[in-house]
C-alpha cells in the first residue's frame, strides 16, 4: 500500500513538473506572448530568410504553418483551433471565405506598399476594391512540354497544337473540370467562364477528339511523370511548371496563344486573427519591392509586385513564359464563381470526357 | 435472471456499434440521395443514374471488378492449395500477407515507378528482347495492381477452408478409385466452396468502388463508380448524386451477397 502511494505521488510530481516546463517553453518561444504572428501559407512558398528578417526588424515572433490545399486551409480556419493571423488562399477561395464571413477587412492605411502592386492585378472580380485580399503570387494554366521528346517538325504555341495527331498518347492532363473544360472552350475561342450549354457541349465534343493523344488524366503526379520523361506534354499550372523545369532543364512551358486561366494566391487576414496590427505589418513587409524581389527569386512564381521587377534578374523578368506580354495577358481570364449548378454541369461533362474511349 | 441482465449488458456495445456505424450511415446516405444540388427534395438523382453515362460506368465497374476477382481466384486457389501442403505453411502464409500491411498509396506510387517508361518492368522487357512498351495507364496495369492488392484477401479464406479439410476424406476418395482430378472436383472443391465464396465477396465488393488506383495507375482511363462518388463529394459537392451512386452500390452488394450465399453451411 505504501509503495502504491509513493508511486502515485511520484506520478503527480512528474506531471506537475512537465506542465510547468511546457508553460515555460511556450512562453520562451512566444506562443503565449502578445507579440507573435501566426502565418498560414502553402508549403515551400516563401524565402525563409525573410521570416527571420521580419522578426529581427520588428521584434515580432512568427509562427509559420503550411497547408497543401485551399479546402484543408479553410476547414482549419473555420474550426478556429489555431488563431491564424495571415493566410494565403487562391482567388476562388477568397470569394468563398468572404461569403462564409471568415475574413477581416484590410486596413489599406496600414499597407502603404500596396502602391507597388501592378494595377492590372488589383480590383479583380473576386474581391472588388481589394477589401479582403491582396495578391501574393499569380500564374497561368498552360502547356508544359519536353522538346527533346517531341516528334520532329512539331511545335507548341497554343491549345490547338495539342490536337496534332503526331502527339498520339503523349499528353498528360490535369484532373480538374474547370481547367480542362476551360481548355476546350478557349480552343474554340470561347470564354472559360462560359455557361451556355450548347457551347459547353461543343467544347466537350472538341475535347473528345483529343482523346487519342491523351495518355492520362492525373493530379499532382504530373510533376513526377514529366520529370521522369514519361510523357512529352502536360497541361497544368505555371507554378508546377516552374518546379518541373527546376528538376529537368530540358522542359519548357508556354502560355497558350488562344488565352487561358489566370490565377492568384492572396494574402488575407482571417477572422480568427489575434494580432491584426502585426498581420498588416507582415503583409506590408512582404510587398516591399526588395523583399518581394528576393522572395520571387526563391519561389520562382510570378510576382504581382511591379516595383519588385527592377530588383530581379533581367532574364527572369523578361521570361515571357512567366511574365507574358500585355497582349497575351489580355486574353487571360480569372475563374468566376459560376454557382453550384453550373459547376456541377462542368463536372458532369468532364466526367463524360473521361469516360470517352478512343 | 442475473444471467439475462448481464447478457443484455454485453449487448450494449454491439447494439451501439450497429446503430451508430452501420444503420445510421446507411440511412444518412439514403437521406442525402433524395436531395438535388440546390438542397431541394427530389428524385432527380435517381433519374440521372439511369442515363447512359452512369449506366456505362456501372457496367465498366462490374467488368473490371469481375476481371480482378476472377484473376485473383485463379491465382489464389492453387497458391492456397500449395501452401497447405508445405511444411511451415503458416510462415509462408504470413509472408504472402505481409505486403497488405503496407499503405495502399505507397504501393501505388511504387508501381508508377515499376511500370514507368524507364522502370524495372520495361528494362526487363527490353532485356528479354520484347522491347519496352507502355505499361502505365493501361487496363493491364490497373488490373495487375488491383489483383496484387486484393490477392491476400482471396488467399486467406481459401487457405482456411483447405486447411480445415479432413485428410481422411481425400484418402477415402483415393481408396474408392477417384482420380486426382475427380477428387478435386467432387471432394475438395465442394468442401472449400464457402472459402471461395467469402474470398470472392471480400475482393469483388471493394473492387467495385476502387478509386485512387483509377487515377494513379490507370490515369483516369478507367472510371468506376468509386471515382464518380469521390468527384461528387470532393469537387462538385453534389452530395445527393454521390449518395445516390452509393445507394446503388449498396443495393448491388446486397444482391451479390444474396447470390453468393451469405449463410454459412457447416464449418
TrEMBL record, chain A:
It is found in: Periplasm. GO terms for biological process: polyamine transport. Pfam families: SBP_bac_8. Keywords: Periplasm, Signal, Transport. Spermidine binds at residue 92. The keyword Membrane does not apply. The keyword Signal applies. InterPro entries: SBP, Sperm_putr-bd. GO terms for cellular component: periplasmic space. One of its GO terms (molecular function) is polyamine binding. This is Spermidine/putrescine transport system substrate-binding protein.
TrEMBL record, chain B:
The keyword Transmembrane helix applies. It is a multi-pass membrane protein. The chain crosses the membrane at residues 12-34, 62-84, 91-120, 140-162, 199-219, 239-262. Keywords: Cell membrane, Membrane, Transmembrane, Transmembrane helix, Transport. It comes from the Bacteria. Residues 58-260 form the ABC transmembrane type-1 domain. Belongs to the binding-protein-dependent transport system permease family. CysTW subfamily. This is Spermidine/putrescine transport system permease protein. The lineage of its organism: Bacteria, Bacillati, Bacillota, Bacilli, Bacillales.
